[in-house]
């Protein structure tokens, strides 16, 4: 099937939108990159945006190309043949969805839609978002879906920082408002995915993504609970998971840690729960798992206080270093990172908390700006909490320097090691 005419507009140039734009450019498409954040546009132009090496090379190749237009003006959408919406869908401090950016992006796409366009929602959201924010407003503008414009949902499936699962090798799920909408959206996305799986509606595609991330959230909460159980029984949870993973069917290995961060696992299931609560539909398993994930960083902080007490160090005034504050290894991103909650809890208890993370130069916690300690080995710490172990970030310096709380469960060679 032929591509739609005109460039593809990618709305939102974050960890989903920018790799999508670069993949489309590499496939020969012209791309309009729209982002309302001037700092993000500057980072893309300068080639300093956080990307996997393959995408960083693509950015260097295309940053100055006339086929790649960067703008903060939504009016540019009117000149696109297709629009792919890739904005974040966060939650607020009470774990309530905050879809303001999504609503604004969809409203802009509807406002500037022109006949013949394909509009694809790639953001993760509640079931019915595509219909509510695109299909119905387009109809209200007098644009008939599947006649004047073509609308589909194709939730992103990008794993930031993971080179083992590049975008093009991960099948893409597409649900069109009609079969023709699905076919056109699938043709648009074929250059960025080796396989496209078409489902019967946007709602089916939306729920698919929510199931994927809720599955991960539930299993992360479960393995964290088993880590606590293993500790109570004086067993090594890593050994237990490795042994269970030898079963060739019916088991997928998940690893315990300090919690879940980023804009997927700790956020996306809340869009489902929010929708279900409004309809008074119970989802007790999902609800309990999300509550357990939210509580996990506080459990890490409590364990840190216990370790300090066991060494006779009062928490007030104790010097505690958090090693790694990014939400996962290999990414320069601390959004929703459990480390932030750990720092908040320990600081509230009176500890003098600092951090080291070469990928995060600074961060703000409770109104305070903290900066990366470049040479933590040169200072004394009463406790080191290893939160994130980045590839290539040497942690050998922590050996022999006092107690280490290993929230990654991966530093089994450290002698004075404690687990959550």
Could you walk me through the main structural features you see in this protein, from its secondary elements to its overall organization?
The chain has 420 residues and is α/β, with parallel strands linked by helices. The protein has a domain at 8-200: Rossmann fold. It contains eleven helices and 15 strands. The chain has helices at 17-26, 38-46, 53-62, 100-111, 129-140, 179-189, 202-232, 237-244, 268-278, 284-310, 338-348; strands at 8-11, 31-34, 68-71, 82-85, 118-121, 150-153, 172-176, 196-199, 319-323, 352-356, 362-365, 368-371, 383-386, 404-406, 417-419. Strand 5, helix 5 and strand 6 form a beta-alpha-beta unit. Helix 7 (202-232) crosses helix 9 (268-278). The mean pLDDT is 95. This is UDP-glucose 6-dehydrogenase. It holds the Pfam family UDPG_MGDP_dh. Residues 321-413 form the UDP-glucose/GDP-mannose dehydrogenase C-terminal domain.
Task: Note the topology.
Blueprint: E1 8-11, H1 17-26, E2 31-34, H2 38-46, H3 53-62, E3 68-71, E4 82-85, H4 100-111, E5 118-121, H5 129-140, E6 150-153, E7 172-176, H6 179-189, E8 196-199, H7 202-232, H8 237-244, H9 268-278, H10 284-310, E9 319-323, H11 338-348, E10 352-356, E11 362-365, E12 368-371, E13 383-386, E14 404-406, E15 417-419
Form type: globular
- Element-by-element helix/strand order: EHEHHEEHEHEEHEHHHHEHEEEEEE
Q: Strands of the biggest beta sheet: in what spatial order?
A: 3-2-1-4-5-6-7-8
How much helix, percentage-wise, in residues? Answer: 25-40%
Work out the number of β strands.
Answer: 15
Distance between the termini: 54 Å
Task: Report Rg.
Answer: 23 Å
In terms of per-residue confidence, which ranges show pLDDT below 50 for 5 or more consecutive residues?
none
The fourth-level CATH homologous superfamily of the domain at 8-200 is NAD(P)-binding Rossmann-like Domain
Largest sheet: 8 strands, mixed
Total helical segments: 11
User: Which fold does the CATH topology of the domain at 8-200 refer to?
Assistant: Rossmann fold
Q: Architecture of the domain at 8-200, according to CATH?
A: 3-Layer(aba) Sandwich
Instruction: Using the coordinates above, name the CATH class of the domain at 8-200.
Output: Alpha Beta
Mean pLDDT rating: 95
InterPro entries: 6-PGluconate_DH-like_C_sf, NAD(P)-bd_dom_sf, UDP-Glc/GDP-Man, UDP-Glc/GDP-Man_DH_C, UDP-Glc/GDP-Man_DH_C_sf, UDP-Glc/GDP-Man_DH_dimer, UDP-Glc/GDP-Man_DH_N, UDP_ManNAc/GlcNAc_DH
Protein name: UDP-glucose 6-dehydrogenase
GO molecular function, one term: NAD binding
Pfam families: UDPG_MGDP_dh, UDPG_MGDP_dh_C, UDPG_MGDP_dh_N
């Amino acid at each position: 099937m032929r591509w739609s005419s005109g460039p593809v507009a990618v709305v939102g140039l974050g960890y989903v939108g920018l790799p999508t734009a670069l993949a489309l450019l590499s496939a020969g498409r012209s791309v309009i990159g729209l982002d309302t954040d001037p700092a993000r546009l500057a980072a893309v132009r300068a080639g300093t945006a956080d990307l996997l090496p393959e995408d960083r090379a693509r950015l260097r190749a295309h940053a100055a190309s006339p086929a790649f237009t960067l703008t903060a003006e939504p009016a540019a959408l009117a000149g696109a043949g297709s629009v792919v919406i890739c904005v974040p869908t966060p939650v607020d401090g009470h774990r309530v969805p905050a879809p303001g950016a999504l609503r604004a992006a969809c409203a802009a796409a509807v406002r500037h839609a022109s006949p013949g366009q394909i509009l694809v929602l790639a953001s993760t959201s509640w079931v019915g978002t595509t219909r509510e924010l695109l299909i119905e407003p387009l109809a209200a503008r007098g644009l008939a879906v599947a006649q004047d414009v073509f609308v589909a949902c194709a939730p992103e499936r990008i794993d930031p920082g993971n080179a083992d699962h590049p975008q093009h090798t991960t099948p893409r799920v597409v649900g069109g408002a009609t079969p023709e909408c699905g076919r056109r959206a699938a043709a648009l996305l074929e250059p960025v995915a080796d396989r496209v799986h078409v489902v019967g509606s946007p709602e089916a595609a939306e729920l698919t993504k929510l199931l994927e991330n809720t599955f991960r959230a539930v299993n992360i909460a479960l393995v964290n609970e088993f880590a606590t159980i293993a500790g109570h029984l004086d067993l090594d949870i890593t050994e237990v998971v490795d042994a269970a993973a030898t079963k060739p069917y019916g088991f997928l290995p998940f690893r315990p840690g300090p919690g879940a961060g980023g804009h997927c696992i700790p956020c996306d299931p809340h869009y489902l729960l929010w929708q279900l609560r409004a309809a008074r539909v119970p989802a007790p398993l999902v609800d309990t798992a999300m509550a357990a994930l939210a509580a996990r960083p506080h459990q890490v902080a409590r364990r840190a206080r216990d370790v300090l007490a066991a060494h006779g160090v009062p928490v007030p005034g104790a010097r505690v270093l958090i090693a790694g504050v990014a939400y996962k290894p290999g990414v320069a991103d601390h959004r929703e990172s459990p480390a932030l909650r750990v720092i908040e809890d320990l600081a509230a208890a009176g500890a003098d908390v600092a951090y080291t993370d070469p990928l995060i130069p600074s961060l703000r916690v409770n109104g305070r700006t903290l900066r990366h300690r470049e040479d933590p080995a040169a200072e004394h710490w009463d406790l080191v909490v290893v939160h994130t172990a980045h590839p290539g970030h040497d942690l050998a310096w922590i050996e022999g320097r006092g107690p280490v709380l290993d929230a990654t469960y991966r530093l089994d060679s450290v002698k004075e090691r404690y687990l959550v």
